[in-house]
Amino acid sequence: MSKVVTNQIKKSISELVGRTPLLEIVNYEKENQLDAEIIGKLEYLNPANSVKDRIAKAMLEEAENRGVLKKGTTILETTSGNTGIGLAAMAASKGYKLRVYMQDGVSEERTKVIKAYGAEVIPFSNVPELVQTLEETDGDFVAVINVFKKSVAEKEENVVFLNQLENEANPQIHFETTGPEIWEDTAGQVDILVAAVGTGGTISGTGAYLKSKNPNVLVVGVEPGMASIATLENPDITEITGVHRFSDIGDERVPANVNSNVIDEIIEVETSEAYNAARAVAKSDGILVGISSGAAIWAATQLAKRPENRGKRIVTILPDTGLRYLSTDLF
Ligand code: PMP
Fold it and tell me: Are 293 and 79 in contact, with CB atoms under 8 Å apart?
């Protein structure tokens, strides 16, 4: 029997990236007596369960097109987890080797998942130069990346360092996919975008697209409050994984992919508030999301309570799944 050709049967997980649904968290809105809509973009429904699948696919394809990624090349990336997981899944499906350098202390699920996809995980503590730089600069990731280039990436042959902090394919893929998806699925009726800022790729690309369609869209970044940043004196503070603080640090510490022209406002969220919001939406609307999603929902809640935002539509990026935090005290 000859088989009917259908494009509904995919041949690679890269075909499953994006086109994530929007969900209005109606029960949460009611419980909190909100007069604005909070709509989550469920990025955990990507094939490797986070928003980072988008940039994993985009950065790999960009490196292939540039000719620096071929069979036998080892891909290198530094990540707090989700980018490593997305890349590990894509690298497995495309047949590439991947080595992920991860900061010590991120949830153990992340390491396990990356290894399950067949990639290698190197803790930062195996590379003394990285730990030393983190300590000396009190967590300056831009400085760490520069040291990584010199002490790891440039010392090896046949490797490609994707570098999500500086790789233009990162914001670009959000400009090409995340933004248009939100625009289409809301029929152009979106007033506010809320996104947590890590590399800045999500907010910069998505925000720039939405503003190109309607300059009045308000783009709000979410960053950790001062009490939620681990320091040399207080190393045990629980942080919002994947999210960084940029507003009151020197320009040289802000990653190239944070486009501050696109960001209209920053809302600070403490880890405890992020936890509360993530716990609340699991019970109210049945969505199990991670800490940065909780932070984004908490920020969206503050916006929804402002009188000037009555009746407005707030689209909130929910970057990853709560299943990635079962070893932590989130749930
Ligand atoms: N939340 C989580 C859980 C993340 O891993 C990241 C990426 N570091 C972000 C939010 C922020 O996304 P972006 O890097 O695009 O700013």
Answer: no
